[in-house]
Every structure is written in structure tokens, then in C-alpha cells.
Amino acid sequence: MVSRVIPVDCFDLVVFGGTGDLARRKILPGLFRRFLAGQIPEDARIIGAARAEIDDTGFRAFVKDAIMEFGGKAAKQTEAVAQFLERLHYVAIDAKGEVGWAALAGLMRDDVVRAFYFSVAPALFGALAERLHQHGIASPESRIVVEKPFGRDLESAQKLNATLALHFTEHQIYRIDHYLGKETVQNLMAVRFANILFEPLWNARHIDHVQITVAETVGVGGRGAYYDKSGAMRDMVQNHLMQLLCLIAMEAPYRFDPDAVRDEKLKVIHALEPVRPDDIVRGQYRGTGKGTAGSYCEDAENPDSRTESYIALKVDIANWRWKGTPFYLRTGKKLRARASEIAIVFKEVPHSIFGEEEGWRENVLSIRLQPNEGMTLSVMIKEPGPGGMRLTEVPLDMSFAEALGEDGTDIPDAYERLIMDVIRGNQTLFMRGDEVEAAWAWTDPIIAGWEARGDKPRGYDPGSSGPEDALMLLHRDGRRWREIRE
């Protein structure tokens, strides 16, 4: 099966922070792959804007290097790379000053979609928004894309929303969370709402619990100073894991419409119960050598840090569909494997006609976000061969790499899909302002609670599954975490 490519309208896309790491690794190589797929019109333009004093030629050389490093097999298409580079321009610009803005205004066209990607620190969002209007660059139909972190608490998120609202309406603001652009995440909605098979079972009567895991093998590395002011709760749970939880738990929207979908997600956030202190486990990875060598504290350059590199929570949703079905969330760095998975664990059959067979397992719908995107449904069958009725567990497996392309290259990266949605004006996979604020309103008391108690994160070994206390979070409920594996 080959994915269908639907071209978008002609556009001018300005990437503020165009020489930054995110632009180099994701945005620009992703745009090239969309160009190679035939989705980007011939006369579309991509304009880099940053402080670096380079010209169009220098920016094109930068982008070419980025494509060679991060473009995958597409980078071998040398003729296409050259054609793509012709569509690139660059403006050296001062986000808080006046340098470069007149030049950028002179590049804008009136008859195309105008989109502005704020791939910069949130502190610059307001200045960029203000100058886009001061210089007549933003039109009433222009779109801005803002990266996380979108605030670090409710107060800062509200201020940021208010700042952007001075210059742009809500329908022009695209708060991007790349997890929502993943093929499997969108297929979660398709599996639920396009198939009669699962929706009747998607409730507390049939689902025992849900596990959401986002595990990384790397530490905080060069992000130590930033991460130490954030931690796993702010960096991952408040946005990525919260969005996954909402898509699992939400009711069916009246149609697949941006506000209809986001209305249902918001209802889930409002229904989240406060999390009790004994339903939270925080951890920090230890060093691999003597003392603190290689530890989180060393990477963060803060020997007294109480910031978590790992967190696990038990979350309850106070509504009819999910009352009594807990959601277990965990995320951490320097864990056993790089893996992101949603596991829907169904209840056991009420009565087994086969007796207490050893090896009995619940049915589990496993949704893999990375690596190897796909879904697996485990079911019990008779073990082949004579000798009585022996049961065994087998997976019904759908690997997207196999279904949509021999090696998975037909699956667009999340950023590719989301940027094309911006050009289309489709906000379905982007967070709305009230949704962000509601998430922070739930998160803030949790953080304030452990700060008031003076809780210190538990140590865990690199390459493990996290702190031992996290195992007890499920064991006391008669459950267990799924193994973290690629």
C-alpha cells in the first residue's frame, strides 16, 4: 500500500530559528521529503530567519548538509535536492530589534498562504508576533506555529496565550506537539471510531487498565541546564503523555473537526482526578562509575538537584466511561530501551471453561509509537498439537512499515504531516489555548505538592526500567508494568 499524497496550496513558510537544531534535524529535512513526494507546489518558498549573518547561498549550504545528515534515503536524490534548494531564501533578523524586518516584508507575496514557524525560545514568541504586525507581514489569514514548552506553569501559559492573542486569533495559532503527528496516534482514533470492533469494549467494564510509556535511552546531555528547570513532569507528562491519554479516553466527537476533537480532549482533562502523593514515583538516573560520574546531577551540573529524570503516576478519570479503570503513565531517561507504547489491557474473561491454565494472559492492544510504529492485539488460542487443550498467546500484528511500505520510508515524519496541516489550515492535531491551560491547572498542584513535601527523587541505574518504587505502583494493585523493549 502506498500513501496518497494530496498537494497543498502555494505558500511562503518563514522558519524563525532557521539555523537552529530543530530546523536542521526535523523541519527542513521534513520539508524536503514532502517536496520529493510531490506535495509542495513548484512556486512555494521556504524562508529561513535567524541571527546568523549569512545569505541565501550560505543558508542553502546549511540546508543541504542537514538533508545529507537527516534526510535518510531521500538525500540520495541529488537532482531533487538541488531543485529544493532553489526554493530557499534567508533573512538575517533580530527578533527584538528592527534589523531584517523590512527585508522579510519585501519577500512576502499577497496571493499565497503565509505561515510562520516559531522554532525559537518561548521568550521570543511575543516579540516575533508583535513585529510581524508592526511591519505588515502578518495577514488576517496568516498562521503561526509555536513549539513547546508552552509555559512552565499555569500562570506563564496564560501570559503567553494573552501575549499571542494581542496579535493573532486562536484559529491562527498552531501549538505543535509532534506526538500528535505520528501515524500510530492518528490510527488510534481510526481504530476506535471507524471500527465497530473496539468502541463497545472501550470502557471500564471491559478494560482493566491502560499503560502509557515513553522511554528514552539517552540522558539529558547538553540540555542539562534547561532540563533541570523542567523535569520529566513538565517536559513530557504535561504535554506528550497528556495528549495520548486524552486521545485514548475521549468520547467520540460529533465529527472529525478541529474544535470538535479538541472539545472532547478538554473534557478528559477536566475529568482528571487530583493525584495522591503515594500514586507518584519520581526518579533520577545514577552514575555508571564512582561518585556522580555520568549521573543526572553531573549532567545537569547541579549536585543538589531534586529534578526528576523519571516519573510514574497512577491517574484516575472521574466519568462514567472510565470510573475504576486506572491509567498508569511513566516516562524517563537512560532507561532500558527507546520505546513509546500505549497498552490497553482488557479484563480477563469472567469464567474460564479451560480451568486455571498456566500462561493465561489478558488480551492487550499494544500501540507502538516508536520505534517500528504499529499495533499488536494479543489473543489466546489453542497451542498446536495433540495432548489436550493447552492455551498460548499469539499476536495479531500490523506493522506500518510492512503495511505502508517495504522499509517504512512511505510513512511521513510527524513534523512533515503537521507542517502540511498548518498550510491546509487544519488545527485538529494542534493544541488549543484552553486545553494547554487546563493541562497546567492539573499539573501545577502535583508539582507544588512534592516541592512542599521536599520529596527527593529515587535513584535508578542506567539501562534499567526505572526506580524499584515504580514497580510497587502497580504491584500493590495486582498488576505489573509491561517490559520496556524496542
TrEMBL record:
Domain spans labelled Glucose-6-phosphate dehydrogenase NAD-binding: 14-187
Cleavable signal peptide: none
Domain of life: Bacteria
Major enzyme class: oxidoreductase
Keywords from the named record: Carbohydrate metabolism, Glucose metabolism, NADP, Oxidoreductase
Recorded catalytic activity of this chain's protein: D-glucose 6-phosphate + NADP(+) = 6-phospho-D-glucono-1,5-lactone + NADPH + H(+)
Domain spans labelled Glucose-6-phosphate dehydrogenase C-terminal: 189-482
Residues given in the record as substrate binding sites: H178, K182, E216, D235, K333
Pfam families documented for this protein: G6PD_C (PF02781), G6PD_N (PF00479)
InterPro entries according to UniProt: G6P_DH, G6P_DH_AS, G6P_DH_C, G6P_DH_NAD-bd, NAD(P)-bd_dom_sf
Pathway assigned to this chain's UniProt record: Carbohydrate degradation; pentose phosphate pathway; D-ribulose 5-phosphate from D-glucose 6-phosphate (oxidative stage): step 1/3
EC code(s) of this entry: 1.1.1.49
Protein task: Catalyzes the oxidation of glucose 6-phosphate to 6-phosphogluconolactone.
Protein name per its UniProtKB record: Glucose-6-phosphate 1-dehydrogenase
Origin species: Albidovulum sediminicola
Gene that this polypeptide is encoded by: zwf
